[in-house]
Amino acid sequence: MAHSPLEQFEINPIAPINIGGVDATFTNSSLMMVIVVALVTLFLTGGMRKSAMVPGRWQTMVELAYEFVAGMVKENVGNEGKPYFPFIFTLFMFILGANLLGMIPYSFTVTSHIIVTFALAAVVFLGVTFIGFIKHGLGFLKLFVPGGAPLWLLPLIVPIEVLSYLTRPISLSVRLFANMLAGHLMMKVFAGFIVSLGSIGIAGYFGAVLPFAFNIFMTGLEILVAFLQAYVFAILTCIYLNDAMHPSH
Amino acid sequence: MASLSNNAMTEVPVEKQGGLPQLDFSTYEEQLVWLFLSFIVLFVVVWRFALPKIASVLEEREERIAEDLDRAECVKADAETVRATCEAAAAQARRSAQETILKVKEAAAADLAKETAALDAKLAKQASDAEAKIAAVKAEALGSVDTVATEVATDIVARLSGVGANDADVAKAVKAVAEGA
């Protein structure tokens, strides 16, 4: 009868699919990913279907998203970042879509799974490292040697820089995952309080007002977090990309 | 019942479910497969269709705005030219009006001078005419004085002496007296 607050994170298969030994079972998570892709596509193409010179509300939202991410890339990476803009825009919209869609009751939050966020972070990390070496060759390693540091400090600084570089995918993925996990967990726990207090009786009804009010507040906060975490993920990707473009900082 | 469900919620479930679903490695493969699949689809949609369209609309708008600003600049320059032309025309008109006034004034002054001169000449002529007339009258008068004096003297002589005097002698005597006087 009582639902576990962790139940919302469970992955339930919908249709078992196996392609060449690879488990590609269609689950509730896969369904949400497909819905996110569909909704983001709808949002982007639907808003621009008129391509009006003077935009309406929907088109303004699409243009706002475009200019927001474009500004982020331009500010943090510069003009060299232009080729990577579509990727960062996709990243931002996908994470934002997944975060926001997860706020709908009974839905599933794709980004609350560490494997998903880690995969995205790993793609960013590997991509950025790859780009760094392609653009600068071994000169990319200058990233680990801060300019202006005294020579005798280098044996200390270089390992720290390397370590901080290597932990980037972990911090990037855990930040998003933990935020989503904690927020949804908290909301479910407090929702549980409402139900259990409500089942006590009249006194419980009044007591239940508190967790209910808290959940309303949490819903607003979580929507903010959904935007914030998508933004943080995208902007950190930009910053890492900037490091790859200009390693000697 | 309530306390039971409370307990069930706060203590049991984690063990019952076998930990976080996030740490169930058996679901990783399918999540990764669908993540990459959906992400790549979204990326292609965004990269090939969505972004170029938005970019073209934004660019078009920017161009239009720049164009409009250019045109506004042009129109402003035109207006400036028109204003300058207008001002020049006004200044020209003012100048020519001034000239006309000056010319009229000069013409009037010249006329006045000419007329004054004409009047002066006329007056001078009249004055001299009058003087000439006066002189003639005076001369005539003076001329007749002799005759009158001669007649009067002849008369006086005749009366006093009772002898008719010779006119020529009388005239001679009057003349001598007049000249002597």
Mind explaining what this structure looks like?
The complex is a heterodimer of chains A (249) and B (181). Chain A has helices at residues 28-47, 57-76, 85-101, 114-136, 154-166, 168-198, 202-245; strands at residues 13-15, 18-19, 22-23, 26-27. Chain A has 249 residues and is mainly alpha-helical. Chain A has one domain (7-245). A two-stranded antiparallel sheet of chain A has the order 1-4. The N and C termini of chain A lie far apart (58 Å). The model of chain A has no long low-confidence stretch (mean pLDDT 91). With 181 residues, chain B is an all-alpha fold. Chain B has one domain (2-180). Chain B is 90% helix and 0% strand. Chain B is built from four helices and no strands. Chain B has helices spanning 2-10, 13-17, 28-161, 167-180. In chain B, helix 3 packs across helix 4. Chain B is rod-shaped. The model of chain B is unreliable at 1-17 (pLDDT under 50). Chains A and B meet through strand 3, strand 4, helix 1, helix 2 and helix 3 of A and helix 1, helix 2 and helix 3 of B.
Instruction: Report the average pLDDT across residues of chain B.
Output: 85
- N-to-C order of helices and strands of chain A: EEEEHHHHHHH
Radius of gyration of chain A (Å): 22 Å
First-last Cα distance of chain B: 180 Å
What is the rounded Rg of chain B?
68 Å
Question: What structural class is derived from the secondary structure elements of chain B?
Answer: mainly alpha
* Tally of DSSP helical segments of chain A: 7
